[in-house]
Design goal:
Length: 138
């Protein structure tokens, strides 16, 4: 009797271990929870694929409309970006032109200042020479 009880306990512990790992035991198959979730997920995926196939006829016009609006928005945004880009290019071109014009004006002003300073130096030199001549003549 004790041997039978011991065998029953061993079988019960083996059955619980087999259920955890999913081994075949005697009359049935014991499936682990992970395997059960995998099978359930696969079945759900198959059903959803079938459902999407049937529903796609109803959903397709809405999806096409949404994609069309998305494409129209992309075109609108691209046009606006292109306009802004052209405006920025125009502003940069005008700024470069103004910079070079100012640079030329500055160069001309410097050239005129040099000419004036040279004339002033000559006049000052002449006046100092005259004063020296007057002092020597006296």
């Amino acid at each position: 009797m004790e041997e039978e009880k011991k065998e029953a306990k061993d079988m019960a512990s083996e059955n619980s271990e087999n259920r955890k790992v999913g081994k075949k035991m005697g009359d049935g198959i014991f499936i682990s929870k992970k395997s059960l979730w995998l099978v359930a997920g696969g079945a759900l995926g198959a059903l959803s694929a079938i459902g999407i196939g049937k529903a796609s006829k109803k959903i397709k016009p809405a999806v096409v409309g949404a994609v069309k609006e998305g494409y129209a928005f992309k075109e609108w945004a691209a046009e606006k970006i292109e306009r802004v880009k052209e405006d920025v290019e125009d502003i940069v071109a005008e700024a470069k032109h103004a910079y070079h014009k100012d640079l030329e004006a500055t160069a001309e002003a410097i050239k005129k200042e040099k000419e004036i300073l040279e004339k002033v130096e000559k006049e000052v030199g002449k006046k100092t020479a005259r004063r020296k001549a007057k002092k020597e003549g006296e």
